[in-house]
Amino acid sequence: MTPSGNNNLNGKTAGQPTTLYGIGASPGITVGKILVLRRHTRKAGWYHLAPENIDNEVNRFMLAIDQAEQELVHLRSHLAEDLSDALSIIDSHVLMVRDRMIVDRTVEIINNRNINAEWALAKSLGRIKKKFNDIEDPYIRERYSDVKHVADRVFGILSGREGDPFADVDDQVIVVAYDFSPEDALRLRSENVLGFVAEKGGVTSHTAIVARSLGIPAVLGVEQITRKCATGDTMMLDGHSGKVFLNPVPDQILQYQEYSRQYKAFSDDIGFYIHLSSETMDGFRVRLAANIETLDELQTVQQFGAEGIGLFRSEFDYFHRQKAPDEELFFQAYKTLISTLAPLPVTIRTLDVGGDKFVEHLPTNGLRLDLERNPALGLRSIRYSLKEPDLFIMQLRAMLRASVYGNLRILFPMISSLDELERVKQLVNSVKDQLRDEGIPLDPGVEMGIMIEVPSAVMMADSLAQGVDYFSIGTNDMIQYSLAIDRGNEHVAHMYDPLNPAVIRMVKKTIDAGHARGIEVSVCGEMAGDVMTVPVLLGLGADELSMRPSALPFVKRLLRKSCTSKLSDLGEKILRCEDGAEVRAYLNSYLPKNYPEEFNRP
User: Fold this and answer.
1) Rounded Cα gap, residues 93 and 210, in angstroms
2) Which residues of 351-375 are buried (b: 16+ CB within 10 A; e: fewer)?
3) pLDDT tens across 77-127, in order?
4) In terms of domains, do 500 and 370 share one?
């Protein structure tokens, strides 16, 4: 990337006040001059290799892989240990450099097609992109950006790269570019960089996570921002709301400076709440737990005062390895997780894979899961585990062996019928018998729960509740399946609405069914960490909310300023609404009145 001074403003007059909208990826408000960086994309270029040059080309590619790995390791060595999120992301990129989908496939193409490394790498990346595009879960689909950032580093080494575009930033600026890798974000850590804005990226992207770790205000996903501004223009960015103001007028700047002052006071106040109990003003307790995917996040869980793990996505530990882990590796990971947080509860979800998720890594007995016409309705989650019992049993053995080291809760995803639940319980009991016969200790009181994600589970919740110890409502999939909306489909994604009354009523029905049978009901997914929907979930009677760790203190602060009688009234009012617009209108009125510090913003 290089600084750019001249840009096509799409007909806009330079200096004209303009408001653009993106995604608030890292909180903070800042005003400054713009520095536009343009990444000069080098064409991969194709050329044929003589047979005698193939080995040299493979060697050139592998040397580029070695250099990319060394650069990342060097970058990591200069990070402070308290930047745990950034460290874990760089670690994942180090592993990704040598992922077989990148390395083995590229070497295979060089050998089989007698073509240069750049072109072969581009072909490999295209194949990977297609697989990620087919994934329905937006969180996992977002991980393709990490693969691309790693591949771009290798491309740069193969084709020659420019110098560090951030080295000559000697004025205080807001940096604008098409995209930033997490490594780019780390290099932006400078008193001269006030914030950054990009066309690509989202709130769950690793670039956003790094920005939040470093405290750099950032807005991502602003369409054509590099064409709508020029180096030297003035910008004000609001990393809370995702608004970007080009050439703001003085009144706007004054208004947002006051807002920034208020937010700083608010953020300083948040730290006070981290280690307080999660209860309402009238003493009603709600457990606030964390969702994590790797052991590297344990420090963050403790840092933000989580009362346990509400969801450990075990498939990420599975797929982030160079080879499939065996029972012992699973066991050691679970033992570390459970013992570190003991006596707090740790909920581990069994593999939520298949159909649309990383099918290359899975044993399929000859089935082509990547060819399923509709993977969201195919062989995935618990269906895959029951189809491949050896892998399922290996994971259950590891969990139950680790159970003696703390407070384990096992969670089974996408249960859709009583028959499925019964088959799962039979396998669990069989594994328990195996371990006892082998003289291996286990906790006989391990709680087992199911995720309520599909409409059939909601309708059968009263019956399902008789066979489990708790429910966990997976709101992301519940919304998708109940509204028949693919969040990754640009034509219908706008219809994906957490506040649709159908979703609200399904959540309520599930909670009531669980409570009628005397079991706890947790809610996880984006709704559980969104301060706009949290009061609704509390008003519906949720016992636990599980969210990304950084959201915990904000939700706890809101919870401690709540009263159960008011929350119950809110829940009843929302249940009477007939469409999402009516729900939003009511919340937009209710929330600023009852939580003025959280919701009264410009």
Assistant:
1) 13
2) bbbbbbbbbeebeeeebebeebeeb
3) 765 554 555 666 777 788 888 888 889 889 999 999 988 998 899 888 888
4) yes
Q: Are residues 201 and 111 in the same domain?
A: no
**Whose CA is closest to 408, among 339, 329, 305?**
339
Q: What is the pLDDT of residues 45-81, one digit of tens each?
A: 778 888 888 999 999 999 999 998 888 887 777 655 5
Active centre residues (catalytic)? 206, 524
**Rounded Cα distance, 558 and 587, in Å:** 14
Range of the domain at 86: 51-159
Read off φ and ψ for residue 228, nearest 5 degrees. -105, 0
d(CA 210, CA 201): 12
Residues 233 and 363 in one domain: no
562 and 429 belong to one structural domain: yes
Most confident listed range (114-128, 334-348, 486-500): 334-348
Convert the pLDDT of each residue in 282-313 to its tens digit: 999 999 999 987 787 787 788 888 999 999 98
* 270 within a domain of the structure (yes/no): no
Q: Is residue 226's pLDDT more than 60?
A: yes
| Count of other CB atoms within 10 angstroms of residue 272 | 10
Co-location of 173 and 146 in the same domain: no
Q: Which residue among 122, 138, 159 closes a domain?
A: 159
Within a domain: 263: no
pLDDT(490) > 60: no
Pair type for strands 520-524 and 544-547: parallel
The helix (run of H) or strand (run of E) holding residue 2 is strand 2-4
Burial 327-340, CB ≥16 within 10 A → b, else e: eeebbebbbebbeb
Prediction pTM value: 0.65
Tell me the CATH number at 526.
3.20.20.60
Place of tokens 């208020």: 262
Q: How many angstroms separate the CA atoms of 598 and 165, rounded?
A: 38
